[in-house]
Design a protein that fits this description.
41% of the residues lie in helices and 13% in strands. The chain has 504 residues and is α/β, with parallel strands linked by helices. Helix 2 packs antiparallel against helix 3, helix 15 crosses helix 18 and helix 15 crosses helix 19 (488-501).
């Protein structure tokens, strides 16, 4: 099944930001495009706005004047749904209410031909439910673009319970022909991105709610250690706290209030106070003109230890051994194959976050996972009230000698980056096991949809087998609510394969 022919008219119903963006994508690809909005005059206003954006593309050298003029000639605002009768594809981008969408598609079904592809751009509603009342639900798909649609490459192509394979394939190939990167997924709550991304926000909020660190510090650790482009607090301020919380709440409710998707009370209070982020002037951060952006907590300078002893290869943090040698610090190594600890001159230990807490052991400082320890510019350390000041000072001085800023946070099991990555890996394995999408499409979606440095399966392949499962098991032992209980799919990945291969 091939993409829609460029001569086939495409309609966009709903002319807000997303509707205009989708219309522009189809228009620049070469289709005749019809715009319809239930509010009088909105479609014409949208057509003018799209024309202005086409002018900007010409100014930037991304579109020729001839192509712009041809695109403008193909763009037509209409006053009634009846004028969409000859369209081969209708994409809906109206209010996120099930009843409104169902009514719209019921009306469209009376107008368009039986071979017209019907698509919704919903980000949180069930594609199956929207199509439920239709006489021909087999031609109905989800085409979830990401905002801004002309710039972001990802499109989630969602098959509802009744969607025909031919319809999903045609939608997929059409999105690809438009220059997008489509990924196929089943009609599950949140689809791919909004389902799997929840821990990125939830774990940051949990650390904050536990008063272990402030938003600026958590964001800095996620960026400078985890390699994420933005931290959870600044990203939700950009998205809009109301929008982000609404998606979280929708996914949570759709999964029958599964504790793994529980919304944040702190974010709820933020929304209730009207602090919605950049668009309202205040969110987690203050965006008013006179406000200063708070910086992360950064520890003062400490002397590096003269020597450290490594118990084993440090697993995911093995690069630290090379960095320690390069910094001129004497490194003593003991033969512990699975060791993930450094012994400091004080006798205290420095350990990679493993889901346990500093208070459980005498004189242990935990350090967080990094995407790349050589490139990381900040490392988080976690200590309890029982950790000796000397041990914490030596741990701080060690990482500072490696060229890292150090943020000391509260006694948080699994720290910040490690627990976030482990949960992303777990939800991704669970989604594949339940038929939501393939590993490849999930990695593609998370890299392109939310700009993660690695997809969950790419992260998983860089870490020791069983690492994410074991960390979550430790977290689950300390918080037996079910939030951190590793999925059966992750257990199978972590141990069943090992047993077949004869490894430990």
């Amino acid at each position: 099944m091939t993409a829609l022919d460029l001569s086939s008219p495409v309609a966009v119903v709903g002319t807000g930001t997303m509707g205009q963006g989708i219309a522009q994508v189809a228009l620049v690809a070469g289709h005749p495009v019809r715009l319809y909005d239930a509010l009088a005059g909105r479609a014409r206003d949208a057509a003018e706005a799209i024309g202005v954006r086409l002018d900007r593309l010409v100014e930037k050298g991304r579109l020729s004047g001839i192509d712009r003029d041809a695109a403008r000639a193909r763009l037509k605002p209409v006053d009634s749904l009846a004028e969409l009768a000859d369209c081969a594809l209708v994409v809906e981008a109206v209010l996120e209410r099930l009843d409104i969408k169902q009514q719209l598609f019921a009306e469209l079904e009376e107008v368009v031909a039986e071979n017209c592809l019907l698509a919704t751009n919903t980000s949180s509603l069930s594609v199956t439910a929207i199509a439920g009342p239709l006489r021909h639900p087999g031609r109905f798909v989800g085409l979830h673009f990401f905002n801004p649609a002309p710039l972001l490459p990802l499109v989630e192509v969602v098959s509802g319970f009744a969607t025909d394979v031919t319809s999903a394939t045609r939608a997929y190939e059409t999105a690809r022909a438009w220059g997008k990167t489509p990924v196929a997924c089943a009609d599950t709550p949140g689809f791919i991105v909004n389902r799997i991304a929840r821990p990125f926000y939830a774990e940051a909020f949990a650390v904050y709610e536990g008063q272990a660190a402030d938003p600026a510090t958590i964001d800095a650790v996620l960026r400078e250690s985890g390699g994420f482009k933005m931290g959870a607090f600044e990203l939700t301020d950009l998205i809009g706290q109301d929008v982000n919380e609404s998606v979280t709440h929708s996914v949570w409710q759709s999964f029958f209030q599964d504790v793994r998707f529980t919304p944040s009370l702190a974010q709820r209070r933020l929304v209730e106070s009207g602090r919605l982020g950049r668009k309202s002037g205040r969110g987690w951060y203050d965006y008013t003109a006179a406000a200063e952006r708070p910086g992360p907590h950064t520890a003062g300078r400490e002397r590096p230890p003269a020597h450290v002893t490594a118990e084993g290869g440090l697993g995911p943090a093995a690069e630290l051994l090379t960095l320690i040698r390069e910094a001129g610090i004497q490194l003593r190594e003991e033969d512990e194959n699975e060791g993930t600890r450094l012994v400091l001159p004080s006798g205290g230990q420095l350990a990679l976050a493993d889901g346990q807490t500093s208070v459980e052991f005498r004189d242990v400082v935990y350090f967080d996972l990094a995407l790349d320890y050589r490139k990381a510019t900040r490392i988080a350390l976690s200590a309890s009230q029982d950790t000796s000041p000397r041990t914490l000072a030596e741990a701080t001085g060690l990482f500072q000698a490696l060229g890292k800023d150090v943020s000391v946070i509260g006694d948080v099991p699994g720290m910040i980056v490690a627990r976030t990555v482990a949960r992303l890996i777990d939800l991704a394995h669970d989604a594949v096991a339940k038929g939501a999408a393939t590993e490849e499409d999930i990695d593609t979606a998370m890299r392109l949809g939310v700009n993660y440095p690695l997809g969950p399966f790419e992260w998983c392949r860089r870490l020791p087998r069983g690492w994410a499962h074991d960390l979550l098991e430790e977290l689950h032992e300390r918080d037996p609510s079910g939030r951190y209980a590793p999925s059966l799919a992750l257990y199978r990945h972590s141990y069943a394969t090992d047993q077949r291969e004869g490894t430990s």
